[in-house]
Amino acid sequence: MFNFEYWNPTKILFGKGQIPAVAHEIPAGTKVLMTYGGGSIRANGVYDQVRSALAHCRVIEFGGIQPNPEYRTLMEAVELARKEKAEFLLAVGGGSVLDGTKFIAAAIPFEGEPWDIVQKGAGVKSAIPLGSVLTLPATGSEANPYAVISRAETGEKLAFSSPHVYPKFSVLDPETTFSLPPRQVANGIVDAFVHTMEQYLTFPAHAELNDRFAESILQTLIEIGPKTLANPKDYDARAAFVWTATMALNGLIGCGVPQDWATHMIGHELTALYGIDHARTLAAVAPHLYRVLRHGKAAKLLQYGERVWGIREGPDEERIEAAIRRTEEFFESLGVPTRLARYEGVRAETPREVAQRLKQRGMEKLGERGAVTPPVVEEILRRSLAA
């Protein structure tokens, strides 16, 4: 096991009826910028609950944060927050709203061009404090320091991380997710699954406890994913999903182990090029990456197949392929395609284009061993484009 530091300051308020608890987390009289996306929080009653919980605060609203939050939109919120001298940000929505709000929080006091935070990795020295009310489980953004921001004018989708943008608190009420469309629920299941795999499916590091944590997350998603899709108002299944998605990327299972994240970097480029849902890019990349890198990942692929899917018989190569196939079948059972060929408009030259875009960003040696070079990226995407 590698050396590590683990610190997660986010307070979690979990369960039904927890939104009113926001009133105890933000001091009276605080000027709060409330951020959200479209109109869903008004339709499902979350908006009214949050406004009621903020009755003791001075509230400014900023709506319209897109899926794959757009830099230009976020900068409008930054200007509003600066003008109104916002003292606290409250994100109400899913991962995109949370990610966008983290950027807003970092950009408000930032000196210089805020895009440098994501494009150049400019250090974030401070941020406006923020909290969240989660309405879509998927990204784990409610309890981590990460965010991914898009910029349409330059065709970029880039990530940043700073301990200054950990939410101070996050409300996780599973009932706020009951009205989500099936596509978003399925995306969330896949997103959490691949988050876990990026921290687990690497090489053995004598981190037995972390492996078991990761395997339990994967097994839980496999068990409750279909249940919560089939019956969105099954509170117990949805509660398990919400908490599992948080645990997949709150830093715990990544302690002391090698991590990959090549699937995410490739996926971000596909979203930037074609607007494909983030989780769907992951499903279209991950199985093919596992096949291309199966020799370097063999030990963990065999462990994954045995412990998660119960695959114990046969030669190693057959067991590895069976584990990858079971992964594909799981994603497909949720209605999430595992081939880029299933998406209209994806060009034959996409493998080379994505490889070159990553190369231009200095991402020429991705993965836990630095083995995902531009030619390997091309091979992964060629496989995904095959019918």
SSE blueprint:
Layout: E1 11-14, E2 31-36, H1 40-43, H2 46-53, E3 58-62, H3 71-84, E4 88-93, H4 95-107, H5 116-119, E5 130-134, E6 146-151, E7 156-161, E8 169-172, H6 182-200, H7 208-230, H8 235-248, H9 262-274, H10 278-292, H11 298-309, H12 316-333, H13 350-360, H14 374-385
Parallel strand pairs: 1-8, 2-3, 2-4, 4-5, 5-8
Antiparallel strand pairs: 6-7
Helix pairs in contact: 3-4, 6-7, 6-8, 6-10, 7-8, 7-11, 9-10, 9-13, 10-12, 10-14, 11-12, 13-14
Task: Kindly name the structural category.
Answer: alpha/beta
Question: How many distinct beta strands?
Answer: 8
Order of helices and strands: EEHHEHEHHEEEEHHHHHHHHH
CATH-assigned homologous superfamily of the largest domain: Dehydroquinate synthase-like - alpha domain
Unreliable runs: none
Essential attributes:
globular; Rossmann fold; single chain; two-stranded antiparallel sheet; 387 residues; 6-stranded parallel β-sheet; 14 helices; alpha/beta; Dehydroquinate synthase-like, alpha domain; 2 domains
Plain-language structure description:
The protein is of the alpha/beta class. The protein has 2 domains: 11-176, Rossmann fold, CATH 3.40.50.1970; 181-385, Dehydroquinate synthase-like - alpha domain (Dehydroquinate synthase-like, alpha domain, Up-down Bundle). The chain is 47% helix and 11% strand. The chain contains 14 helices and 8 strands. A 6-stranded parallel β-sheet has the order 1-8-5-4-2-3, sandwiched between helices. Strands 6-7 form a two-stranded antiparallel ribbon. A hairpin with a 4-residue loop joins strand 6 (146-151) and strand 7. Helix 6 (182-200) packs parallel to helix 10 (278-292), helix 7 packs across helix 11 and helix 9 packs across helix 13 (350-360). The longest helix is centred in the middle third of the chain and has 23 residues, at 208-230. It is globular, with a radius of gyration of 20 Å. It starts with 10 loop residues before the first strand and ends with a helix. The mean pLDDT is 97.
